[in-house]
Write the structure tokens for this entry.
Amino acid sequence: MLLVLASAVVAKEKSVERKSLPAALQAAIGREETKGATIGRITEEKENGKTTYEVETKVSGRSRDLVFSPAGALIESEEETAIASIPAAARAAFERAGNVLKVERVTRGTTVTYEAEIEKGGKKSELAVDAAGKRLQP
């Protein structure tokens, strides 16, 4: 029974082709959010009965992932950024956790948070914090 409950929470993701996307989403991908970007993999994710689409892009050599609703509304963006460009408190929180390998600025609506891939003792992990350096729940 526990296994069934656990699997219901896990998101299901599959690669999709751009031409198979809803028309509104295809139009959204062609808008400002992807201007000047190279579009990579597109995935459809179903979690808790909701469907979203993640579009992986590259801009100026940095990764940027965009999450859209089927109607084409931008829900979230995750943009690779230099650690020096994030707030000092967030940077300090990451540096205390270990060697910072990669930092992303995550924007969801008007809320901005930061995620980092950290290496410590030969193990890699992810850490998310707000601008004040407060750890966020996964």
